[in-house]
């Protein structure tokens, strides 16, 4: 097995690589790492490397068609002020897929990228 680099990587299969890059970089603060468009791009935020695979990428072709639709899995992004993030994203026209849910560990809300992959914004409860 090869040595891992400094990122934890997650692959999302997307319909439109450029739309996904724009969403993650302009709305959620990711930085573009590589973009051999239109098949693939990867963006990073902290230690997370998000692999955005279009239908022509090898990653998308390896996915069985019965598993190719988005599910309940999601990336989890910690934010300092959930209400401020919700306001900012609503002003940018981003629709949410849930209401705010509060529990003993904190508060969260779900939104989706342009391909329907879920993103959870989470504000930890104060200690």
Automatic annotation (TrEMBL):
It comes from the Bacteria. Pfam families: Glyoxalase (PF00903). Residues 6-124 form the VOC domain. The keyword Plastid does not apply. Keywords: Metal-binding. The keyword Repeat does not apply. This is VOC family protein. It comes from Microlunatus ginsengisoli. The lineage of its organism: Bacteria, Bacillati, Actinomycetota, Actinomycetes, Propionibacteriales.
């Amino acid at each position: 097995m090869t040595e891992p680099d400094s990122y934890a990587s997650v692959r999302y299969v997307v319909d439109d690589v450029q739309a996904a890059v724009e969403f993650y970089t302009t709305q959620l603060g990711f930085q573009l790492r590589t973009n051999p468009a239109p098949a693939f791009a990867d963006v990073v935020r902290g230690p997370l490397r998000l692999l955005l695979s279009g239908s022509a990428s090898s990653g998308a072709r390896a996915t069985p068609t019965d598993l190719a639709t988005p599910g309940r899995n999601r990336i989890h992004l910690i934010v300092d002020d959930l209400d401020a993030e919700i306001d900012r994203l609503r002003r940018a026209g981003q629709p949410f897929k849930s209401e705010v849910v509060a529990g003993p560990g904190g508060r969260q809300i779900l939104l989706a990228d342009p391909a329907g992959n879920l993103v959870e914004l989470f504000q930890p409860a104060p200690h």
